Amino acid sequence: MLLIQDVIKRYGPITALDGVSLEVKPGEFFGLLGPNGAGKSTLMSLVAGLRSPDAGRLTLNGRPLSATDPAARAGLGLVPQSIALYEELSAEQNLRTFGALYGLRGADLRARIDEALAAVQLTDRRRDQVKTFSGGMQRRLNLVAALLHRPQLLLCDEPTGIDPQSRNAIFELLEARVRAGLTVIYSTHYMEEATRLCSRIGIIDHGKIHALGTLDELLMRLPFEEEIRFPAGPDTAPLLARLAGQGELTTLDGTHRFHPRADYRLSAFFTQTESLGLPARLFTSQRPTLEALFLHLTGRTLRE
Ligand SMILES: Nc1ncnc2c1ncn2[C@@H]1O[C@H](COP(=O)(O)OP(=O)(O)O)[C@@H](O)[C@H]1O
Ligand SMILES: [Mg+2]
Questions:
Q1: Ligand 2: distance of its center to the CA of 303 in Å?
Q2: How far are the Cα atoms of 29, 31, 37, 163, 291 from residue 193, in angstroms, in the given order?
Q3: Model-level pTM?
């Protein structure tokens, strides 16, 4: 459906996208996972036709996407990272305005507005000004405004706010629409969101796609199978020296994460911890996460 080939985008001396290629197929829930400044919004803006690339090609259903050909973008919806609503207007007036921009009107538009408000539990607030809404309510409205014209491809640029209730409402709506055939590109710096939602994920940093695949395919790229976590502190400090050379050791938020080499035996690990008198309850072993993969690929954390 969407084909992106060798795309480069610069802002003066900054190369925001440095040779990005990827393909999104119909019905995919595609995740673009990367930290702030990775190039996610820039890529979204190129697909949405808000900017043109300096090099490379973008096509939607075989047709070149360009900033000067709005017809090529009729099947696209964009949920921008910063909320794009008219604060002085009510929820309903906002949707009517966005619908009119797409040429919708009359009974059809009214029905779509009713459906949109109900989908994000805002029916009883339809006549209230958007400036009286919480951040999460604005996020929800921002999302359905982009769906009114029933696009085949929806671009969601970090569409979740902070309140968990709105986040779940957004997740559930997107999941239902993807089941009904919508294709979504979803950017986020939260690995939990990419893990929960996305059928395929591209890991982006410094304008480059570092890895692309399903969650399982991505995690298979790690040279280790598990991750043992334990708290950083004076108790566990002596253990670090003994783990040197046995695998990768990273530290995040006061927690050490030990990723043993493939040939390392976990029994050896617990022999070490026992000989140091460290209780087993300090340690948790789990499947590695996308965060571990990101660290492995880039040497950075997603929140840097
Ligand atoms: N309008 C702009 N002018 C100059 N630099 C920009 C502009 N937009 C983004 N950048 C730079 O391009 C890089 C990628 O930014 P962006 O695409 O916003 O990343 P993300 O959405 O992943 O946080 C960053 O270094 C950012 O500072
Ligand atoms: Mg962004």
A1: 13
A2: 12, 9, 18, 14, 12
A3: 0.89
